[in-house]
Specification:
Order of helices and strands: EEEHEHEHEHHHHHHEHEHEHEHEH
Strand order of the largest sheet: 1-2-4-3-5-6-7-8
Number of helices: 14
Radius of gyration: 22 Å
Strand content: 15-25%
CATH class of the largest domain: Alpha Beta
Shape: globular
Largest sheet: 8 strands, mixed
Protein name: Pimeloyl-ACP methyl ester carboxylesterase
CATH architecture of the largest domain: 3-Layer(aba) Sandwich
Helix content: 25-40%
Number of domains: 2
GO molecular function: catalytic activity
Biased composition (Basic and acidic residues): 1-12
CATH superfamily of the largest domain: Alpha/Beta hydrolase fold, catalytic domain
Region (Disordered): 1-22, 296-323
Organism: Actinoplanes digitatis
Length: 378
């Protein structure tokens, strides 16, 4: 499959590398990666995005991956970059979600692009360096040390520290994850038991430092300095999701943000921590897309899920089955001819797990068809 990434020129001439997945006419949502991170980070599978009608746009924030560095940037500068990418894609309105270090940058879009942003969410995001925030309380000692160094007038210490970590990550991409694992809560370690999530994180870290440590350095410095916008002037719906046991970006940050952003909703979730944000992303995307109009597709073409053929119009999850029927393998309904489904989605046809239904079916009668499948009726 070709690389879906493309370059966008920012207002000041810098190049940003962005990619998107899901239906081309889907409801657009921007996903902003963490610190460090890249556009390749964990996100729902394309099939999930297609079922939910969501077009997910991600990009390498400045200095990460294939995007040019923006020296001395502020958190608020992210709004102009998001607007430039949206313009390049012909998007008028969209939602934004930021995970971890991407959270403050999502809030920048809420504050500075109120006429274009529909909703904003942060997942385990961070607060600004405000006197009212007990910024380091509950944070790992390594994060405390690095963010404290980022507050110094002399930045040489944090530059040397992150240069070393970036070089090691570039040489051994898994080394950063292995370094973080002992610092994680038990909850986070359980999340990272998933080999797919591990692989996505390793790939994101590797891509993050392909051009050096500068995105990482600029990120931590920007988060400890003035953000360039006022939280109390945000006038779009904001949702703050945070794991109560987070020790990388402690939950006190979200509590403080909830008190500063007018009307903000706070989801403080027990028995969850920092990397739990990966698991809740699909449901948060659904909230962000709710009420957001689909964008027209130039020429009327619609991007299909990876490997799908035009004759496979849609596939939907079947509701939970009775144990006896589950034993028969009936789990999913597919709209399309049996031949087209077999060619496009061979993995879901294993062991009779799918009943392929004729192309005459549409959204109006798929429920009836699904009921026939659940009852094993031809």
């Amino acid at each position: 499959m070709p690389d879906p990434s493309h370059e966008v020129k920012a207002a000041d001439g810098r190049l940003l590398t962005a990619s998107d997945a899901g239906p081309a006419n889907g409801r657009p949502v921007f996903l902003l990666h963490g610190t460090p991170g890249s556009r390749t980070g964990p996100r729902p599978r394309a099939s999930v995005l297609h079922r939910r009608g969501i077009r997910l746009i991600s990009y390498d924030r400045p200095g990460y991956g294939r995007s040019d560095r923006h020296p001395d940037r502020r958190v608020g500068d992210a709004a102009a970059d998001i607007a430039a990418i949206a313009d390049s894609l012909g998007l008028k309105r969209f939602s934004v979600v930021g995970r971890s270090g991407g959270g403050p940058h999502a809030l920048a879009a809420a504050a500075l692009l109120p006429d274009r942003v529909h909703r904003v969410a942060t997942l385990v995001g961070m607060a600004p360096n405000d006197p009212g925030v007990d910024w380091f309380s509950g944070m790992t000692s390594e994060n405390v040390s690095e963010f404290a160094k980022a507050s110094d007038s002399d930045l040489s210490a944090i530059q040397v520290r992150l240069l070393w970590k970036a070089l090691r990550t570039a040489a051994e991409p898994r080394s950063l994850l292995d370094h973080l694992l002992p610092q994680m809560t038990t909850t986070d370690q359980l999340v990272l038991n998933d080999a797919t999530i591990q692989a996505l994180l390793v790939e994101a870290y590797k891509e993050a430092v392909r051009s050096g440590p500068y995105g990482w350095i600029d990120d931590v410095v920007a988060m400890r300095r003035d953000w360039g916008f006022k939280l109390d002037e945000i006038d779009v719906p904001v949702r703050l999701w945070h794991g109560a046991d987070d020790n990388f970006a402690p939950a006190g940050h979200a509590r403080w943000l909830a008190g500063q952003i007018p009307g903000a909703m706070l989801d403080l979730v027990s028995n969850s921590a920092h990397f739990s944000a990966i698991e809740v992303l699909p449901d948060m995307l659904t909230w962000l897309a709710d009420g957001l109009a689909r964008e027209p597709v130039p020429g009327g073409a619609e991007r299909q899920p990876p490997g799908a053929q035009p004759s496979v119009r849609q596939w939907v999850d079947d509701p939970p089955l009775e144990p006896a029927l589950a034993d028969r393998g009936h789990q999913r309904v597919v709209l399309g001819t049996a031949e087209a489904v077999r060619e496009a989605l061979p993995d879901v046809l294993e062991n009779g797990a799918v009943r392929a239904l004729g192309p005459h079916l549409d959204e109006r009668n798929v429920g009836e068809a699904a009921q026939r499948v659940r009852m094993n009726v031809p």
